Amino acid sequence: MKREIITTSDGSSTIHLPEWNEQYHSKHGAIQEAKHVFIKNGLSLFSNKKISILEIGFGTGLNSFITFLEAQKFNLEVNYIGIEAYPVAAEEIDKLNYVSELSATDFKDIFNLMHKQEWEIKNNLTPSFTLTKRKQFFNEIKDINSFDLIYFDAFGARVQPELWTESIFKTMFNALKNDGVLVTYSAKGSVRRAMQSVGFIVERLPGPPGKREMLRALKK
What we know:
Blueprint: E1 4-7, E2 13-17, E3 22-23, H1 30-40, E4 50-56, H2 62-74, E5 77-83, H3 90-93, H4 98-101, H5 108-116, E6 123-126, E7 129-134, E8 147-152, H6 166-175, E9 176-184, H7 189-197, E10 201-206, E11 213-218
Parallel strand pairs: 4-5, 4-8, 5-7, 8-9
Antiparallel strand pairs: 1-2, 2-3, 6-7, 9-11, 10-11
Helix pairs in contact: 1-2, 6-7
């Protein structure tokens, strides 16, 4: 499948798949979307804590890198697990402009290490931030009561509806600890109903630029 690096509306780059008319992040702003959905409405709920995060769709590493940068502000100790079945190629990573757009030149080596580190190996990026990348399909996740927060950042239901089913969200529910939170950019009614059917308490929140709403789900 053809893949193109494009620039989104906030100046940050993403990967576009013309055949699907789909991209890894919002065309209205990759960084803006990540900060709004996953940081403002997810990570910020867990300040001054030790937290375990599961990302569904590691992709370009944008969410993990922003989380790394923000965790220092929130005084967080983070154990980050990123799931990805189809890793992004090194030559594509080299063309992404996240380090410069986030004014994070001092942490360029961290961004590079996130992508160069081996899969299935837990790596201490700093004393307070560990990263494990797991190459697997989402329906293969077997973790139970392991995570405080899930970033659900799969491709949209329009192109991959099988990733937004009751079965997948049951796996997510099982993976979360009690009082754990799942956040996603999606606001589809079918997605909300699938979450609710497996036990999540779901709320609609204002969405990132270009999107009216998003969803946040709580496990009680």
